[in-house]
Amino acid sequence: MVLGAVKLLVGSAERVNGVGIEPEPDWSFDALVAELNALETKLTSPPLFDKTISRGKNEEIKRGKPFILRADEYEMEDTESEDEDEKALVVGKRFICDELYLSDSDNSDVVSSFEVQPYLMEEVGEVEGALFEFTHEHQLRVKDEIRNKISALETALVNESLNSTSSLLRVEKYKESRQELDRKLDTQYQRRIAEALDNHLTAVQRDRELRSQIEERKIRSDAQYEEAKKKIALQEEKQRQEKAKAEAAAKLKAEEAKQAALESERKAAMEAKIRAATEAEKRAEKEATEAAARLTDNASSPSNAETKESGIVYRAAASTLNLEHGRLQKLKELYEQNQMIRSSSRQDYTRHESHISRLIRQIRGVRDNVRSKATDLTKLLNDPQCPQSISIEIFAKKIVSYCENPGNAPFASGYVIVLVTSQVPHAMDILLAELHRACLYTVPKHLVYRKSMGTDAVESGFLILYRQATFQSKEAYFRTIGYKEDDGKMESTDDYLKRLESYMKVYGALVQTEIQNVQNLHGLQEGWAWLARFLNALPANQYTAVSLNAFLQMAGFALFRKYKSQFVKLLKVISENFLVDLKARNVPELTRTVVEIQTYIEDKKFLKEPEGRSLQSNLLSNQAFNNYN
């Protein structure tokens, strides 16, 4: 039997010289070589020698599944048969070879093994030899490529490892830098928190100290008030005792005179007194007639005419009544003009009025607020869509209505009035006329309540008008001087005095307002004249006392700065005359007002600027917010 060469084709199930090849999915060229080496080893020596393949850096190479070779056995006859295709198919043997160690040094042994053992195959021709050589060269080339790829992979793995290590180092370094930055930021944040807490605690401590000082001042003020009250009570008690003694002495003397006088002399004395009283009455009537005539000629005031007809007695200076008459006359003319405008046009000015009213209610003691409100009000007064006379009327009424509120800002209102009237001068007289109608003590003048006719004289140019008062009741007198009546119920005296004080504070703040490059049409000279006329013409009672106290609290500081010693002289007149007359009335309701005026003069509070006179630059809420932040 002659064994011919076997031709192997990869990836095909074709038959080569009667030998079938079983395809293997995991087949590789190395596996083929391993199978051949294993076959050679089994043929040469029975025992198998197993080696562990190691390449390069002792790295084991993964082997594929064993290569399986199947061959058909057939018999060849000595004589050739005509039908060469008919061959007996026998079952081929399966060779399973374990993994063998392959290296470059083993190639020669493999080749030599194939060469020295002729029983594997017969001598082949040139084609088969060339194929064998080509296969051998291809095997070597594949091995080199595999080695190169392994080396490249090892280099790439080393580079990748180095890059990973470098990246990890950079990440660690970045992490450390971020941690250091976080520590610094945390330190800064803690420092800010500490500073903010310290500022907050400082502000709280300052606020507590301020409140403590306020409480201490209040306690001292209350103590001074109680002490002054006790002194006044002692003085009043002493005066009552002296008065009682004087009355007792006078009574004793009168009794002695009565007992010593004769009946005839008493009759003669009585007749003489009657004659003297009659002559005095005639002289008083004559002087009253002359005074009334002078008042009519000099003042020509409609209010005086009304007073003459109704029999009401006013105490006021002649020049004051002239000024009041002029302002009231302008107000009357303005009302008549506006009435004609409303009747002819029938235009609704309600929205315009509400806009002015809202701006006035929003007045606060802040510089920016005062400037903005004054600018807006001036624009509304000059608005061509609404006649200026109507705008002035609305402005004057709303300002006076705003003055009634005890919580108003008098100094801020004074600033707004001066700024607006400097642009619209006619509005000042209208505003003052409305203020005179609401509070007669802004004139100043006083309405006298008398049950019988009295006489007064003209002194130093101050005219005191006297007529017989014909009030039906005390309520009628209250209505005349400005008490409000709601549903037939008259307001209390305390409420009236609070409104009176509010009016006088706004008036006092108005006369003392001084703005750079802005003319105050009713400035300090008018305030000085008001104080002089007040002290010369008005009596001392609870109404005049409240008016004077409110005026001094607002305008005293500015009057002293301008008039110095002259203002101090007026304060001396108040202390020696006005306060003495108030104390002599012995009215418990006047005690607090008397103490306040007396404290104002004795403590020289006119040297200190009143609170609120200088407008604030920022709101207190914003300032507190800045302090706490």
From TrEMBL:
Residue numbers spanned by region Disordered: 278-308
UniProt record, GO biological process: poly(A)+ mRNA export from nucleus; protein transport
Biased composition (Basic and acidic residues): 278-289
Keywords: mRNA transport, Nuclear pore complex, Nucleus, Protein transport, Translocation, Transport
InterPro entries in the record: GLE1, GLE1-like_sf
Keyword Transmembrane belongs to the record: no
Gene Ontology terms: cellular component: cytoplasm; nuclear pore cytoplasmic filaments
Main location: nucleus
Subcellular location: Nucleus, Nuclear pore complex
The protein's name: mRNA export factor GLE1
Organism name: Lupinus angustifolius
